[in-house]
Amino acid sequence: MHRKKLILALVALAILIAVGAVFIPRDPLRNWKSDGETLWGLEESMPIPKSVLADVRAYVNEARLQAAIGHIAYYENNSGEHAVRLTSMSGGMYWNYVLIYDKSNSREKVIKYSSGTYGR
């Protein structure tokens, strides 16, 4: 009887770990080096290449995020790629938009994920 309970407990634990791994977002920039961060609107003070900054602003305008973005951070990795993380609060959720650029400052992809909730 104890053996069955132990097996059920281990299976339940494995399911909880698997579900948690699926639903807890991993930071896509966890191994990147931060080169600074500031409030949105003060991004000119950041060491971001002008072409990347222009693309970030275009993305924010296209996605209609102007009023929602509160924070901007700039990152680089060992391969010479760049990334910008935009953080916003909307609908009780903290949203992160990660724009990743190659060595020639061309946007490769955008990752959107929630990093938690507020006001609940």
List keywords for this structure.
about 120 residues; alpha+beta; 5-stranded antiparallel β-sheet; 2 helices; 5 strands; about 30% helix
- Largest sheet geometry: 5 strands, antiparallel
Number of domains: 1
> Any idea what the radius of gyration is?
19 Å
Sequence of secondary-structure elements: HEHEEEE
**Low-pLDDT residue spans:** none
Structural class: alpha+beta
The span between the termini is 42 Å
What's the β-strand tally? Answer: 5
Residues in helices, as a percent range = 25-40%
Total helical elements: 2
Lateral strand order in the biggest sheet: 1-2-3-4-5
Mean pLDDT: 86
| Rough outline | elongated
The fraction of residues assigned to DSSP E strands is 35-45%
Summarize this structure briefly.
With 120 residues, the chain is of the alpha+beta class.
Report on this model:
The chain has 120 residues and is of the alpha+beta class. The protein has one domain (28-117). 29% of the residues lie in helices and 37% in strands. It contains two helices and five strands. The chain has helices at 2-23, 50-62; strands at 33-39, 69-76, 82-90, 93-101, 107-117. It has a five-stranded antiparallel sheet, with helices on one face. It is elongated and about 65 Å long. The model has no long low-confidence stretch (mean pLDDT 86).
